[in-house]
Structure formats: structure tokens, C-alpha cells
Amino acid sequence: MPTTPARQRDLSDRPAVRARAASRPAVRQPLTDAEVTSLVERARSGDQDAFGALYEEYRRKVFNLARFSLPHVTAEDAVGETFVRAWAALPRYRDVGVPFVAWLYGIARHVVADTVRAGMRVEPRAEPRLDEAVSRDGELDHLTLGAALDRLPDEQRVVIEMKYLADLTNEEVGAALGKTPGAVNTQQWRALAALRTILEDG
User: 171: domain CATH number?
Assistant: First the structure.
């Protein structure tokens, strides 16, 4: 017998059906630029819920950046410190055409640098797999790779950090650095080639 709309409503009201529906993981779509702008403006006015939404959107990118230089637990602490500093600095934030995540990235870099200077470095780092981009076998020691990154010119190192660690697109990196996406792509490949040479030369 066909299930009527009323029958469907009856079934959906059953606890077991409700429990199964609740257990399905929600797929969260990335925020649009307009949504980010709106949340930032609300957060600047003191809306903690809006800032919480920004935290959920970007905490993984900030963690990826921190994790490349810090042990896991310390990287988690760095994420927290980054957002604490971001919340304090939000009243001074101005949208000048640079993605909000790039502004966060700048704060995160300072947090990581402060932590490293405080002596919290280092354990072999598990992510992200930048080694696969510069090694034929993809099995580099991550500390070796980190040391090689430190030998890059600042401009190349920043592009690699923003692309691979903060997980920004060419467009976002370009907006942050005042470059076209094509120039970012060129700089990225030059940096990867330079890294490969440094690693092969030892």
C-alpha cells in the first residue's frame, strides 16, 4: 500500500527514525565571501556567535600552519592563541580587499614564531604532505623539510606556507601579497624547485 504524506509524518515522528536522522553527519559547506564578510562585521561588533562561526570555518587551516612547526598538542594551543589574539584585534580590523583568512594567517605566523622562540619546538611533523611535492619518493623527514623551508627566500617561503600550510588558493594568496594568481603559481613552482635542489644538495 503506498505511503501517504500523513503516514510519512507518522514514521518520522518515531524515536528510532528521529535518532537515525540525528546521527547522520551534516555536510558543512564552506562559507561564501559574503557570509564571511557578514560574520566578520558582526564579530567586530562583539557578536561571539559570529566569531565562533569564523573559528569553525578556519581553525583547520590555522592548525595546518601551526602543525608544520609544532607538536600536535602545542599546535592546538597555538590555534587557540591565534583566535584569542584575533578576537582582541578585531576592532582594528579593516577590509582592504585581503581575505580574512590571510589576516588570520598573519596572526598565526606570529603565534607560531613566538612559540618556537619560547623553545616549544619540535617533534617529527605528520602533516601536511609537502614532502610529496618536493621528493620523488615522498618519504622525507619533516624536520629536514622544515630546515630546507627556512633556507628559502622570504617571498618563496611565504607562498609555500600560505599554499600548503594555510591551504589558501592562488587567488587568496595573491590578494594577501598583492600579486596576480598567475604570479603566485609561478612563485610556487619556483619555490618547490628551489626546495628540491636544497634537499638534493643536502
Answer: 1.10.10.10
Whole-prediction pTM value? 0.55
Residues 6+ apart with CB under 8 A from 28: 56
Q: Which is more confident, 28 or 43?
A: 43
Kindly report, residue by residue over 150-164, the tens digit of the pLDDT: 888 888 888 888 887
Distance, in Å, from the CA atom of 79 to the CA atom of 131, rounded to the nearest integer, reads 23
Cell of 25: 553527519
Q: How far apart are CA 40 and CA 189, in angstroms?
A: 33
Total domains in the fold of the chain: 2
> Cell numbers of 27, please?
555536510
Distance CA 101, CA 58 (A): 7
Which pairs count as long-range contacts for 176-185, CB under 8 Å and 24+ apart, including other chains? 176/98, 176/99, 176/102, 176/105, 184/159
The one-letter amino acid at 76: E
One-letter amino acid identity for 108?
A
Counted residue by residue, the chain has a size of 202
Provide the 3-class DSSP secondary structure of residue 132.
Answer: helix
| Listed residues 96, 126, 156: the one ending a domain | 126
Q: Packing angle between helix 5-12 and helix 15-23, nearest 10 degrees? A: 70
Q: What is the pLDDT of residues 80-96, one digit of tens each?
A: 889 989 998 998 898 88
Burial class for 106, CB neighbours closer than 10 Å (0-12, 13-18, 19+): middle
Note whether 155 and 187 are within 8 A (CB).
yes
Is the pLDDT assigned to residue 43 strictly greater than 80? yes
